[in-house]
């Protein structure tokens, strides 16, 4: 994983708060920006990629060693 433009620390937050925080923050960033969401709730592994599909954003990767998910703003 390359370095993101921003890190959103949602550790300790339960579903759906990590997705809500991502949805609030992403529109404030320029198109093409990458946000790394740190989220230790197991539901985030499903919720964040699903949110990206529904909202037309690009889910880039989940980190294998830490609970982190990279999302690129597409529009």
TL;DR?
The protein has 75 residues and is of the alpha+beta class. It has helices at 17-25, 44-55; strands at 6-9, 34-38, 58-62, 68-72.
The percent of residues in helical segments reads: 25-40%
In terms of DSSP E residues, the strand content is 25-35%
Q: Strand-and-helix sequence, N→C?
A: EHEHEE
What is the strand arrangement across the widest sheet? 1-2-4-3
Put simply, the count of helices is 2
Rg over CA atoms, rounded to whole Å, is 11 Å
Going by helix content, strand content and strand pairing, the class is: alpha+beta
Strands, total number: 4
Mean pLDDT: 95
Cα distance spanning the termini: 22 Å
Shape descriptor = globular
Q: Strand count, sense and closure of the main sheet? A: 4 strands, mixed
Low-confidence stretches: none
Describe the structure.
By secondary structure, this protein is of the alpha+beta class. 28% of the residues lie in helices and 25% in strands. Strands 1-2-4-3 form a four-stranded mixed β-sheet, with helices on one face.
Set out the fold topology:
Blueprint (H helix, E strand, L loop, with lengths): L5 E4 L7 H9 L8 E5 L5 H12 L2 E5 L5 E5 L3
Parallel strand pairs: 1-2
Antiparallel strand pairs: 2-4, 3-4
